[in-house]
Amino acid sequence: MRDDYLDRSWADHHFEFTDAFHKLLVSFKVSMESLTAQQFDAPWRRPTRRESCPTR
């Protein structure tokens, strides 16, 4: 059959593939959560510039 030579390769390396794919999806999720938090951040919850600057 055509896929017989791929079966052994998949059996040997499917964990690495799924692990890499999982890392890709997790990093995508983290980046989307970060962008969403920045986009929908409430301005009244952020420190104002005067509060964030050090006092003299």
Topology:
Elements: H1 4-39, H2 49-52
Uncertain ranges: none
Count of DSSP E strands?
Answer: 0
What is the general shape?
rod-shaped
How many angstroms separate the termini?
78 Å
| Sheet with most strands | none
What structural category arises from helix and sheet content? mainly alpha
- Secondary-structure element string: HH
Beta-strand share of residues: under 5%
Helix content: over 70%
What is the mean predicted local confidence, pLDDT? 80
**Number of DSSP helical runs:** 2
Report on this model:
The structure is a single chain. The protein is an all-alpha fold and 56 residues long. 71% of the residues lie in helices and 0% in strands. The mean pLDDT is 80.
In short:
With 56 residues, this protein is mostly helical. 71% of the residues lie in helices and 0% in strands. The radius of gyration is 23 Å and the shape is rod-shaped.
What labels describe this entry?
56 residues; 71% helix; 0% strand; rod-shaped
